[in-house]
Amino acid sequence: HYLLTLQLLPLLRKAPKARIINVSSLSYASGRIHFENINLRNGAFNMMAANSQSKLANVLFTRELAKRLGDTTINAYSLHPGAVATDWRRHIESPVFKFIAKIFTKMFAISVEMGTQTTLYCALEKSLDSESGFYYENCLLVDNMYANATDDKSAEMLWQLSADLVKLEDKYKL
Fold first, then answer.
1. Would the keyword Oxidoreductase be found if you checked this record's keyword annotation (predicted)?
2. List of residues 6+ apart from 117 with CB closer than 8 A
3. What would you measure as the largest C-alpha separation in the chain, in angstroms?
4. In 3D, which of 122, 108, 107 has the Cα closest to residue 21?
5. What is the mean pLDDT of residues 6-17?
6. Beta bridge partners of 80
7. CA distances from residue 84 to 22, 51, 75 in whole angstroms, order as listed
8. What is the reported pLDDT for 66?
9. Directed axis angle between helix 152-165 and helix 47-69, to 10°?
């Protein structure tokens, strides 16, 4: 998300208005950015920890991006699409957890079409023109975010770590 977005910014700046939308998930709530081991190497990898870290990273990235873009015609949003009935279970190795996930999906998941609604809302809703950096769920602004997703220091540290990891060229720096 980080590098691609920064590489696209020159094109986005040419548009009268532009929106950057990062799909996250409610699993950000249990996320923690492992700055000391961002790739969860040396036995630290856990599918749930990796997923929640990546979803939290999307929220923090969006927050920091909006801050750095400032008063421009480019807005950034992150969102939770809902529990969508996709093939997300394919990565679960445990037959027991795979079965539980299948039952969960049948009972609670929404259709792919319904799961796109918040993304479309963030992309198209004119009333969001004056907002940036926020998180949406069910086409509504979520104003009671968990503290890990509103930690501006972590957002800034993640931005710098990302720049270092991708060896960000000066021409893309914000």
1. yes
2. 81, 138, 139
3. 51
4. 122
5. 96
6. 137
7. 16, 16, 25
8. 98
9. 100
Closest CA to 29 of 157, 159, 142: 142
DSSP 101: H
Which pTM does this prediction carry? 0.89
Q: Is 166 exposed, middle or buried (CB count within 10 Å of its CB: 0-12, 13-18, 19+)?
A: middle
Question: How far is Cα 19 from Cα 29, in angstroms, rounded to an integer?
Answer: 24
Query: What residue spans define the domains of the chain?
Result: 1-172
Question: What's the burial of 46, exposed, middle or buried (CB within 10 Å: 0-12/13-18/19+)?
Answer: exposed
CA pair distance 78, 21, nearest whole angstrom: 6
Per-residue pLDDT reduced to its tens digit, 13-62: 999 999 999 999 999 999 999 999 999 999 888 888 999 999 999 999 99
User: DSSP 3-state assignment of 16?
Assistant: coil
Q: Is the dihedral of CA 138, 140, 143, 149 positive or negative?
A: positive
Name the class of domain 1-172: alpha beta
**Long-range contact set of residues 141-148: C-beta below 8 Å, sequence gap at least 24:** 142/80, 145/59, 146/28, 146/29, 148/28, 148/29, 148/31, 148/32, 148/56
Alpha-carbon separation of residue 11 from 5, 92, 99, 122, 166 (angstroms): 10, 38, 45, 20, 20
